[in-house]
């Protein structure tokens, strides 16, 4: 681990190229994270699948990362918010089972069905607002559609006001930015915890039909007592995970369809489904790239490479669907007709995404409504000029400029 190792690009300028280079170096490769922290990067589908179900791999820094336990990781480390959380995402063993059982009650198939009318309502509001844009005008579809649809829906689910959501969104955007300074990192941690504490206090005063109120009420249910920190951090995990990944999914799906008009036509003609689009987008452009962090409970052997006990592990979800060993030489090609669309964008094993059903419903309703309302939708920039988000954690663009209709009215001879 003391040998010189690659420094992970914090700007996210070439996520897929970097993944290919790291994959070629072996099943697990030490890389340098912000602050000089060393972690093992895994970029092969077989290794990732194995690690995600290995009981000797944990997400609990407070139990299994000696550097964190011993105070070697400073409180202003650039990625401190990802490891300081105490919720079902970072819990281990019995604590993980306890917390996941409590939160899982909010994400049943019945609740997914019940939320669909609200998804349709939010989608309609955003599309109506877009329809008021003058013909041919360039619109940032990420800011006007991809971002607010999932963000507002998840805020509804946890009972957060629109004003509070807008303020908290600024903190979440900074949290996934891997170019932040140590000072910013510390402010991020304080910011999201403060926002969640305010939300929980409000729900204690005025409970409603939302996940936060349910979790507050369930603190003593079946003897599964949530600590105040667990409650605070769990609500934030739902907000962050439910919004950021879906925002980037929409960004990537819309970009892929607009740059592959033949694929879009397959959906419009009924020869392919929106489910095909969803899974192929998640495969080739996973909205979540690297998720910090996991840790080795014991020494872990991987095809001749040993990850020592206590070392951090960085799983690259975006690497799975693009692994040639899984999907062949054309793994990077967007093709909604391919039979095998295997990906792990919703996770795998004990940490599989509880909100996957709701995410699919949002994706289906959102995409189908958008492309039905705006059949002339087109990119207003070359795809190569779209700027990536400044992060190696998420996979998306800073902006998605589009024209909702043809630049020149069709009756005037627009091509």
UniProtKB/TrEMBL annotation:
Keywords: Heme, Iron, Metal-binding, Monooxygenase, Oxidoreductase
InterPro entries hit by this protein: Cyt_P450, Cyt_P450_B, Cyt_P450_CS, Cyt_P450_sf
One Pfam family hit: p450
GO MF annotations, alphabetized: heme binding; iron ion binding; monooxygenase activity; oxidoreductase activity, acting on paired donors, with incorporation or reduction of molecular oxygen
Family annotation (PANTHER family): CYTOCHROME P450 YJIB-RELATED, P450, PUTATIVE (EUROFUNG)-RELATED
Family membership: Belongs to the cytochrome P450 family.
Protein known as: Cytochrome P450
Lineage, top ranks: Bacteria, Bacillati, Actinomycetota, Actinomycetes, Streptosporangiales
